[in-house]
């Protein structure tokens, strides 16, 4: 089957003629959004930020202590993983 390119061009031309062109400019005088926090919202945000900072400090100090304890145990030859835990980990990784 041979496709006549003239008919295809006519269809594209008809489509382009029927399209509505949109302006590329935007209205910069449109309303501007404004956000205002209440005093309670500001206080809550401050308490939340302080709590996040404290939690971060606590977890860093606890994890560094645990890491150093494990490092000492491994280097001293006192750390061993039970074979059952190793097997369970391998089986769960294969699932």
How would you characterize the largest beta sheet? none
According to DSSP, the number of beta strands is 0
Order of helices and strands, N to C? HHH
Fraction of residues in β-strands: under 5%
Q: What is the quaternary state of this protein? A: single chain
Distance between the termini: 54 Å
Give the overall pLDDT as a whole number. 81
Into which percent range does the helicity of residues fall? 55-70%
Compute the gyration radius: what is it? Answer: 34 Å
Computed structural class = mainly alpha
Q: Low-confidence spans: pLDDT under 50, at least 5 residues?
A: none
**Distinct helical segment count:** 3
Describe the structure.
By secondary structure, the chain is mostly helical. It has a domain at 37-95. It is built from three helices and no strands. The chain is flat and about 85 Å long.
Brief write-up:
The chain has helices at about 5-20, 40-75, 85-95. It is mainly α.
Supply database-style keywords.
single chain; 95 residues; mainly alpha; 3 helices; 0% strand
SSE layout and pairing:
Layout: H1 5-18, H2 39-76, H3 83-94
């Amino acid at each position: 089957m041979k496709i006549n390119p003239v008919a295809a061009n006519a269809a594209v031309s008809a489509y382009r003629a029927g399209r509505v062109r949109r302006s590329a400019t935007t209205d910069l005088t449109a309303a501007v959004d404004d956000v205002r926090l209440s005093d309670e919202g500001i206080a809550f945000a401050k308490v939340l930020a302080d709590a996040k900072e404290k939690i971060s400090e606590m977890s860093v100090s606890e994890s560094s202590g645990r890491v150093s304890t494990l490092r000492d145990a491994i280097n001293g030859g006192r750390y061993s993983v039970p074979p059952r835990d190793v097997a369970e980990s391998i089986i769960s990784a294969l699932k």
